[in-house]
Design brief:
3-stranded antiparallel beta sheet; elongated
């Protein structure tokens, strides 16, 4: 009797391990002190491996010590998930600092 219950438990656990995982959706957030592009790229790195970007939002916090760029990326790894297909567009031109000497 004990062998039968162990066999049943083993089959159940083995079946659960082989079953496909449930699709997930969520948000990835990242704050960068470099740029909006860096914040959104880093937020995408936090997504699961086969997730698809469905929406993104970014904002800039300006303080006396400098700017911080916050990007939130909504993702889904469902098979029917449609990508946003929107490029990251910025409302105004990003200015290059004078001391950067062309490395940006």
């Amino acid at each position: 009797m004990a062998h039968r219950s162990l066999l049943t438990a083993g089959l159940l656990l083995g079946g659960l391990a082989l079953a496909p995982t449930a699709a997930q959706a969520g948000w990835s957030n990242y704050t960068s002190s470099i740029s909006e592009v860096d914040a959104c790229n880093q937020a995408q790195y936090l997504m699961p491996e086969k997730a698809v970007v469905q929406e993104f939002r970014y904002r800039v916090n300006s303080t006396k010590t400098g700017n911080s760029f916050i990007c939130s990326v909504r993702w889904s790894d469902k098979a029917s998930a449609q990508p946003t297909d929107r490029p990251i567009l910025f409302p105004s031109r990003i200015r290059q600092p004078i001391f950067a000497a062309g490395w940006l």
